[in-house]
């Protein structure tokens, strides 16, 4: 089932999410719904707070980026061909490598894209969809998507990385999103 994406302005996007246990109600269905929602919204990642669940859960599929890139970009990123994965109760173990800038967007903040600087590499401890403990190192685009989604479970948004003046310049667009004055081709939930 395709779920509505929570829009900027909803307080759930600013909460630190709570850990879950293997007996979380209907977890498999929730994950299936999240994958369906993410793909139908043309996203490459989706965190539970974005579908109004205050839990430490997110999914990513960076393979989509590599599958749809131009020929001249092939081989440009170290993490090609990408990764499709579920992350439960994730914790950052280490950030390393140089920071690099990439133009990011967010399903909860439609029609806004901005350059964000993030570390090249992240070591993450998490539980996969089968609640098996994983400790893995991610780089490149995949690391960026993971860090973007991880921010969601920490109550942080990509616009928080912007300089104050740039964020102020986006003020009216952000207000319009909060008020539901934005058109998107996926289901959104506006208001608080």
Automatic annotation (TrEMBL):
Q: Name one Pfam family in it.
A: Pep_deformylase
| Cofactor binding note | Binds 1 Fe(2+) ion.
Check the record and name the HAMAP family matching this protein.
Pep_deformylase
- The active site is formed by 149
* Gene behind this protein: def
Give UniProt keywords alphabetically: Hydrolase, Iron, Metal-binding, Protein biosynthesis
Indicate what this protein is called per its UniProt record.
Answer: Peptide deformylase
InterPro entries linked? Peptide_deformylase, Peptide_deformylase_sf
As cofactor, the record names: Fe(2+)
**Hey, which family's this protein in?**
Belongs to the polypeptide deformylase family.
The entry marks the following residues as binding Fe cation, namely 106, 148, 152
Q: Which reaction does it catalyse?
A: N-terminal N-formyl-L-methionyl-[peptide] + H2O = N-terminal L-methionyl-[peptide] + formate
Q: What is its EC number?
A: 3.5.1.88
Q: Which GO terms describe its molecular function?
A: peptide deformylase activity
Q: Per its database record, what is this protein's job? A: Removes the formyl group from the N-terminal Met of newly synthesized proteins. Requires at least a dipeptide for an efficient rate of reaction. N-terminal L-methionine is a prerequisite for activity but the enzyme has broad specificity at other positions.
Record-linked NCBIfam families = pept_deformyl, PRK00150.1-3
